[in-house]
Amino acid sequence: MEDDGEWFRFDTPHRRSVQSSTEEREHILETEASIIEFSPGQIVVMGSDSSMRGAVVEVLPDQPENRVKVFLEGRVQTFYASQLRTEEERDEVQFISNDQFHAYLTALQIRHPSLSTLYSLNAARVDFIPYQFRPVLRFIRSDRPRLLIADGVGVGKTIEAGLILRELQARRDIRSVLIICPRPLVTERKWESEMKRFEERFIPLNGPTLRYCINELDLEGVWPDQHQKVILPYSLFDDALLYGSGTEGKRRSRKGLLDLDPPPRFDLVIVDEAHRIRNQETSAHKAVRFFCDHAEAAVFLTATPIQLGSHDLFVLLNTLRPDLILDQESFEHMAEPNPFINQAVNHARAQEQDWTARAAEALEQAASTSWGRAILLRNPEFNQIRERVSAWGDSGQQGIKSGIAAQKLLREAPPTWNASAAQSSADDDERIQLITDIEALHTFSGIINRTRRRDIGEFTIRKPETVAVEFTEGQKRLHDDLLQVQAEIFSRLHSDISIKFLMTTIRRQAASCLFGLAPFLEDILNRHIDELEWTEADNTAPVLRSDAVVSIQLKIQDVLEQARALDPYDPKYERLLNVIRDKQNLSNNKVMLFSSFRHTLHYLYERLKADGLRVGMLHGGTPDEERLALRNRFTMPREDSNTLDILLFSEIGCEGLDYQFCDCIVNYDLPWNPMRVEQRIGRIDRVGQKSETVAIVNLITPGTVDADIYERCLVRIGVFESALGGSEEILGDITREIRNIAENYTLSEEERGAKLQQLADNKIRLVQEQAALEQKQMELFGIRLPEDRMKREIEDASSFWLTSASIHRLVALYLQQACGRDQEFILGERPLKTLRLSQEARTILLRDLQTLPRQDAIAYREWEKWLKGADQHLAMTFESDCATEHPEAAFVMPLHPLVKQAAAALLSDMGRKAVAKLKVQASEVPAGLYEFVIYQWQFHGIREDLALKPIASSDAVTPHLNRLLEKAVDVAPDEQGDGAPPVWDELEAQHYQLWSAARAEHQQRTQELAAYRRESLSTSHKARLGLLNEQLEQANNEKIRRMRRSQIDSAEADYARRIQELDRAIERADVVHEPVAYGVLIIEEEW
């Protein structure tokens, strides 16, 4: 085409003559014979860019040269013949080095991510903790990008959310992320600092900035670019923000969030402390639901205990997946099979006699529920698991001796292996996998991740201490009189639920601190108790009605007068003072003190301060600035004159915050809910705690109902000795029964004690048995099942080609090819290295960087800034541990722009195929020379995926090929051979057998899953429409009716779209294969 342009361009009428034009034409005609003749079907490449490769569709004869139509980059394009050349096909094979071959495989995985591979491993400035990758795997493999992470306290949910963000970024361009969290976490910049460990910069929004974003979206139709990654506190969500504001009777001056069209669409929404939206009538709930409804992906984080069947769990799941969890009734139907599935898991874990029969019976019971009959029986995975359990039982052994895993292990084992040991290992592997698969049948398993503290072992040793302090005579008289007044009030007003809760709270305040009773009663009489304070006191009932106090005002006044006259001597406080002073003699003198009551906290704060101690106080009402200052002072070393040694907390006061630097907590009073106790302890017993032990001091007053609950229930449950295990459903029942017994004012003290003892003998015994079973598994079988499963899942999802060493190799090779081979650019033998590049080299890399999509990430901006700058040295590391220790160093991992541009450049230079001749020492396969091909399989259908499939010329080598290639090295020059091409075509027959079997299985499974999901979608869609239509009929407000109609339209469109996707998935179900690498592997016997 350029020649054609030259033909018609003349400089001036006088400088070029017709004669010269004729000479040019004759020259072209003379060289015409040198232009290659092409034919349809031939593979050609662009002369200007050999990476542009296509197939000839048609040749159009023309003069002076032919035109050629080529299918290139997904469309037919026309070129002149001189612009093309044939793809070089050499009989002689050009082998690349081992480093080049390894770097090529790394580049393939960077450019073509797989669902079965984790890309967030070694991709953040965090410690590697295997269990934190469980929710990541669950998220990337789910049918929709939605997940509720309900892990135990201290497990590290913030890090898990960051890892999920990393995985999304490895697979697509993530530009907008919204984090919603409580205001204290914004004030203390927790999410800002945590996200910096993932090379991300988030901006917290205040009210005016959020209003600006809403206005910009309303005017421009897009969310402002500078606020694409933001943090919002729940406290910003109110009716004015949601619905707009303006002068009554006039046109509203501001649009509300819910009115925006188009709505804000974030790539990812993260909702921390998600239990805060459990009330569907609050503005916070409505705002979160709105953002999630229009987000591409959503993750909820909550450490609050979840019991199946609870309304709170329904609300969270309904907000997260309204297409699946439609209403309370459908939620309860979905939950019906889960107790039976849990029974099957427990039978498989315990391995008691006839466990297979019991597990099979439990699965049959799950299938007999209404949800089981409608959904489970149609699920191919459920039916496969039932068959496996039956097959295991029919074998008459504790394992399937004929199982695939056992056969493979025995067949491939070296002669020195002990066959029975290998068999036992295979049986354990198979059983652990079976347990994992049964657990996956849990109807909420695809949308909930629950990692319990006990599943991951102990962070520290808990050392509990009980400090029992008797009432003085005056205190006991006040306490007993209070109980008498409560009994009298309850006998008259026993049907009033709010009065019952009020009297319970007054009694718990008295057990906590009698010197906080008088101000507490004054606040009740003056109606000063707000909802937050009520919640802090562990109340599940609605906040007290103001009119409820009137009927009991005189009785409360009598108690108040007696409390005001109480002798100021307080033995409980004196014992606390002794505990604190003893702690001040230790090197770590920090103490966290908890109480459920603000009046107790205020009393203790004043007294401790008067006694000369450096003390602060945090509760739900503490202002943001003061909260941040107090926390900072608490972290200071004791030598600092501004430090705090003791910090007083309510539950809400420390919610979501980490205090690993402290190793002692004091419970001045205790919640009745054991999971709330666990949350308190989890503030210090968590990842990052440096001390081997943590002290838990419990102050108890004998003769109170709290003391009874402590001795008979909380201590026996074991919450003070170790993290609670997998008995949350039982614990939920225990909490409800504790409250029912404690709030039954018709019971005498003896009757109450007897009922608590009965509860301990019945329900708490089950918790103890479950804990004993878990310990037995570890001691007898050497297996900690959840921990073993986590490690195995991570190992299966790890890739050698994405390790730090592999990334280093890829980058080093790229720098040598781009900037010259004669020097080293990455300097240093230790993990912390220095990158040294000249101005010219940085310019070359900058050009490559600019070919990538631009990203608003710290790593991208800092890399670009350095390339444009004058400094030729850059501190860098490929190791996450080193990156954590040296935050100033560039962390080069799979998502870093340097790695991205290296992978792109390497694949462009090498094309789509690499050929290598390597050698390795091994004992598991016979020595010899083996040819191999690595195919890339693309799975199309319901789940899109990519996989590399190595095929060797020996069946004995194929299963080990990946591991052998990882250890391979270059062959010596004299071992390269004569250059004759190996006969790789012979491996195609072997590949075809594997591919055809995999393709048939994939197509069948796609059809089965599509049929199952179609049935599930149809059932849920009908129920969803019925609910929405009913809500539409009941709505009187035209705005609400408009919203309901919009929801119905959206539901119809969503259903049609998802059915269409299923139909398209069945049509597209295929495994597309392509050879991407060839090689010869010389295996030498290992010495």
From TrEMBL:
GO terms for molecular function: ATP binding; helicase activity; hydrolase activity. Residues 572-735 form the Helicase C-terminal domain. The keyword Lyase does not apply. Pfam families: Helicase_C (PF00271), SNF2-rel_dom (PF00176). Transmembrane segments: none annotated. Keywords: ATP-binding, Coiled coil, Helicase, Hydrolase, Nucleotide-binding. This is DEAD/DEAH box helicase. Residues 1018-1068 form a coiled coil. Residues 138-323 form the Helicase ATP-binding domain. InterPro entries: Helicase_ATP-bd (IPR014001), Helicase_C-like (IPR001650), P-loop_NTPase (IPR027417), SNF2-like_sf (IPR038718), SNF2/RAD54-like_C (IPR049730), SNF2_N (IPR000330). PANTHER family: SNF2/RAD54 HELICASE FAMILY (PTHR10799). The keyword rRNA processing does not apply. PROSITE patterns: HELICASE_ATP_BIND_1, HELICASE_CTER. It comes from the Bacteria.
